[in-house]
Specification:
Layout (H helix, E strand, L loop, with lengths): L12 E4 L2 H14 L3 E6 L6 H15 L3 E7 L12 H5 L3 E5 L15 E4 L3 E5 L20 E4 L2 H17 L3 H16 L7 E4 L7 H10 L4 E6 L6 H12 L3 E7 L5 H9 L1 H6 L3 E5 L7 E5 L2 E5 L5 H6 L2 E7 L1 H15 L2 E4 L1 H6 L3 H27 L3
Parallel strand pairs: 2-3, 3-4, 9-10, 10-11
Antiparallel strand pairs: 1-7, 2-5, 5-6, 6-7, 8-14, 9-12, 11-15, 12-13, 13-14
Helix pairs in contact: 1-2, 6-7, 8-13
């Protein structure tokens, strides 16, 4: 088979600065696929955007491309039972990760990943749905992604997809096989540019990497739609600011999950007192996941919250490219210009007793009860 026509189109890594751009590139890549399409999303909505991608996937399967689709049982619960019949008839394969069951409800696949011909990978925060299709300013949620062509990234991403695709199904089989898969494939994997997160995958290498880089960081910029970092990460960010480094965090001014936003705002105070600067993005709902630590760029599906720390299955990709980081900082600055900075006096003024009480309850629910429930459900299958 001749080389994929995808290879010379773009540099080794480039930004997908918004949902509309990402969707255009994804449809183009699927249309050019010659051998394989691996397609994995937490949410796949049965709307106009979903129909657009389903059409592209069916067309690829009909021309002989191996098409494999993996969606989450909860995030994509709105899909009708017959939604993928056309793709299945064309020879594609579709699996649902952990179909909804109260016995293991907490375990979710939150990853967003597309690989085409083992030549190009797409990762980011966007799902497949009309709400993501826009520039993030005038319409559509504010999100971003990365298009990558490095074999060092593509090979582990392909293995990660194949692993979850292999075990997706009933909860009992899911937990048992994921543990075996980890013991066989991931335990001895060297640390590289791809970070896989989830139960059964061992230590959270992304969090460990972030903490390690923060020890010497001079300039940190974070974008998070949902922000409930661990104590160690909050402390590391404060230390960067106290020793004279710049720490800038862009969070959601408008959120689709108000409970998470309430919990996040309750924790602004210690960060602001340490010199960390915080903005809230106002034009649209912020859903992006990005960390810029000096020249290192981290993009993927993981939020800086308790769920992404070890309950959900997530994927993050690291690129150490000065030009890519510089472009990311320019985009970050553009978003700050559309955002409202949260100052310490303003934050204090808004902390009434009722606000503090609601924030405390939200943080307790999300950082204590949710992880406890997830651990209890996983133990029931051990």
């Amino acid at each position: 088979m001749p080389p994929s026509p995808l290879i010379p189109l773009r540099p080794s890594a480039c930004w997908l600065p918004d949902g509309a751009t990402a969707y255009t590139r994804l449809i183009e890549a699927i249309g050019l696929a010659r051998a394989s399409v691996r397609f994995e999303f937490y949410i796949f909505a049965p709307d106009a955007t979903g129909a657009r991608f389903r059409t592209a996937l069916v067309a690829a399967a009909r021309r002989g491309v191996r098409v494999e689709v993996l969606v989450d049982g909860f995030g994509s619960a709105g899909l009708p039972a017959s939604y993928w019949d056309g793709l299945l008839a064309a020879g594609g394969r579709v699996r649902v990760f952990n179909p909804i069951s109260w016995r293991l409800f907490s375990l979710r696949n939150h990853r967003k990943l597309v690989l085409v011909d083992d030549a190009v990978a797409f990762v980011g925060g966007f799902n497949i749905g009309d709400e993501y299709d826009g520039d993030g300013v005038t319409r559509g949620w504010r999100d971003l992604g990365l298009e990558v062509r490095s074999p060092l990234v593509i090979r582990p991403l392909a293995a990660a997809f194949d692993g979850l695709f292999q075990v997706a199904g009933r909860a009992e089989r899911l937990v048992t096989r994921l543990r075996r898969l980890f013991a066989r494939r991931y335990r001895r994997t060297r640390v590289g540019p791809v970070f896989l997160i989830g139960p059964g995958l061992g230590r959270n290498r992304f969090r460990a990497e972030l903490l390690r880089r923060l020890r010497r960081a001079r300039h940190v910029q974070l974008v998070a739609g949902y922000f409930l970092p661990s104590f160690r990460l909050r402390r590391a960010l404060r230390r960067v600011a106290r020793r004279g480094g710049r720490v800038e965090i862009l969070l959601a001014g408008r959120s689709d999950v108000p409970l998470v936003q309430r919990a996040a705002r309750a924790g602004y105070g210690p960060l602001l007192r340490a010199g960390v600067r915080i903005w809230e993005y106002e034009p649209q709902i912020l859903h992006a996941k990005l960390a810029l630590v000096d020249h290192a760029v981290y993009v993927g599906s993981a939020n800086l919250d308790t769920r992404s720390a070890g309950i959900n299955y997530e994927v993050m990709v690291r690129c150490t490219d000065a030009a890519l980081a510089a472009a990311g900082r320019l985009a970050f600055a553009a978003d700050l210009a559309r955002s409202r900075e949260i100052t310490l006096p303003a934050w204090r003024a808004g902390q009434t007793w009722f606000t503090r009480f609601r924030g405390m309850c939200a943080r307790f629910l999300l950082t204590r009860i949710d992880p406890w429930l997830a651990r209890a459900q996983l133990r029931s299958f051990s």
